[in-house]
Hints:
By secondary structure, the chain is mostly helical. 71% of the residues lie in helices and 0% in strands. The longest helix is centred in the middle third of the chain and has 37 residues, at 132-168. The model is unreliable at 1-7 and 244-260 (pLDDT under 50). Keywords: Cell membrane, Membrane, Transmembrane, Transmembrane helix, Transport.
Amino acid sequence: MSSEPHFDDAHAPGEARRAVRAGLGxxxxxxxxxxxxxxxxxxxxxxVWQTMVLSLLMFTGGSQFAFVGVIASGGxxxxxSAIASASLLGVRNVAYGISxxxxxxxxxxxxxxxxxxxxxxxxAVSLAQKSAHARTVGFWVTGIGIYVGWNLTTAIGAIGxxxxxxxxxxxxxxxxxxxxAAAAAAFxxxxxxxxxxxxxxxxxxxxxxxxxxxxxFVLPGLPVLFxxxxxxxxxxxxxLGTPENTADEPDDVPxxxxxx
Length: 260
């Protein structure tokens, strides 16, 4: 029987420190988007408290930007489309939760708490680590760090936009600050790391074309749902896809490819 220490025993302290540094770095960079969200939400007609509730309870940037964007375009009449679009973007977190279940471990309270922090960044940082302990540390540090930072910057953006609107009396114009492109930039940053193979590239192009074609004829928010049908069909029939080769993947490392 080998006397060599297990990887986690031998390298966990150093791996955990690297996971903490990675998590804090990602949290700092991601939290900056909260300023844009807070300002855009106020410019779209939400008050400061409504904006803060979205960040505190929804806490998934893509869904928040989608929800606010659809409401800004179509008003309350577009609320069903806004909810559908936000929910569709949030579905990916269910897949992340399945991947992270072995990292989080058993325990109802712990799993319930982890569900709120299971987002793109916390999953990516966690699964990028080599040891089980570092994966757990990376998940919690990233998730909690982004939650705190995102809500702080949301408050800064919302309060700042509200103050500017009150000061000039003409309302806050996000275009004057370049924030009107923030939502598109956030979605592009989420999508770009996935464009590594023919299939996701084809899906992205086809979905964009479908969304542009239907936009003049449907309510705001619905183009996203039409575009999603493209991904469903491609995934169902595996067009342009190839079988995944997982022979070289260690048994204790969850799938990482495609995450930002």
